[in-house]
């Protein structure tokens, strides 16, 4: 019987990966159809994803390529989020505030990120790698950082757009 030994330095990365997978699952599940605007959910998005980006940027200090990928991804994601807000159908009714996102854009970005993680895991598995020592660049590969930062920038920008819409309704 073989036991899987996990290097202690991998625990924070695995914790963050679990958080990201959970958030992605809930995001993808909510991207189809009309959604009630939550007063809390956009604020959590605006708080959590920038913290993750700062964590990744701090871990990438001294590695300009990785920092550049994080920055480029955040810029691309922000622009995509603004585009996504323009495609969103907003509706304020007596039952509450609702929005219908453009599912194609958000789901495509999420699947791109999930596909990248699956690709990296498959590469690790096929190379005979193990989780007994931290795999060099598993989480912090420049392409993975680019895709994650794009997704984070999209979600934050989209959440800011939702908050602006809600604020404009409150003023009216």
Keywords:
about 170 residues; mainly alpha; 5 helices; elongated
Sum this structure up briefly.
This is DUF1453 domain-containing protein. With 172 residues, the protein is mainly α.
Shape: elongated
Helix fraction, binned, reads 55-70%
Trace the largest sheet across and list its strands: 1-3-2
Q: What is the structural class?
A: mainly alpha
**Main sheet overview:** 3 strands, antiparallel
Total of DSSP H or I helical runs spanning 4+ residues: 5
Q: What share of residues are in beta strands?
A: 5-15%
| Sequence stretches where pLDDT stays below 50 over 5 or more residues | none
Oligomer class: single chain
How many separate structural domains?
A: 1
Straight-line N-to-C gap? 66 Å
How many β-strands, per DSSP?
3
Gyration radius over CA:
18 Å
Please trace the helix and strand order, writing H or E for each element: HEHHEEHH
> On the 0-100 scale, what is the average pLDDT?
84
Question: How would you summarize the topology of this molecule?
Answer:
Layout: H1 11-30, E1 35-36, H2 41-59, H3 64-87, E2 89-93, E3 96-100, H4 103-126, H5 142-171
Antiparallel strand pairs: 1-3, 2-3
Helix pairs in contact: 1-4, 2-5, 3-5, 4-5
Describe the protein in words:
It is built from five helices and three strands; from the N terminus they run αβααββαα. The N and C termini lie far apart (66 Å). α1 (11-30) packs antiparallel against α4 (103-126) and α3 (64-87) runs parallel beside α5 (142-171). The chain has helices spanning 11-30, 41-59, 64-87, 103-126, 142-171, and strands at 35-36, 89-93, 96-100. 22% of the residues are buried. The longest helix is centred in the C-terminal third of the chain and has 30 residues, at 142-171. It has a three-stranded antiparallel beta sheet. It has 172 residues and is mainly α. It is elongated. The protein has one domain (39-171). This is DUF1453 domain-containing protein. Keywords: Membrane, Transmembrane, Transmembrane helix. InterPro entries: DUF1453 (IPR058247). Pfam families: DUF1453 (PF07301). The chain crosses the membrane at residues 6-22, 43-61, 67-85, 97-119, 139-163.
């Amino acid at each position: 019987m073989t036991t899987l030994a996990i290097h202690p330095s991998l625990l924070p990365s695995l914790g963050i990966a679990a958080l990201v997978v959970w958030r992605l699952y809930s995001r993808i599940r909510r991207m189809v159809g009309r959604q009630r605007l939550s007063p809390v959910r956009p604020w959590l998005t605006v708080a959590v994803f920038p913290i993750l980006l700062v964590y990744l940027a701090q871990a990438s200090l001294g590695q300009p390529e990785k920092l550049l990928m994080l920055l480029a991804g955040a810029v691309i994601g922000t622009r995509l989020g603004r585009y996504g807000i323009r495609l969103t159908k907003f509706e304020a009714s007596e039952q509450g505030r609702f929005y219908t996102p453009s599912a194609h854009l958000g789901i495509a970005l999420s699947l791109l990120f999930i596909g990248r993680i699956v690709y990296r895991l498959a590469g690790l598995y096929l190379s005979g790698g193990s989780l007994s020592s931290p795999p060099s660049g598993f989480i912090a590969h420049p392409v993975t950082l680019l895709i994650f930062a794009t997704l984070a920038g999209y979600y934050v920008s989209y959440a800011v757009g939702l908050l602006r819409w809600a604020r404009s309704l409150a003023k009216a």
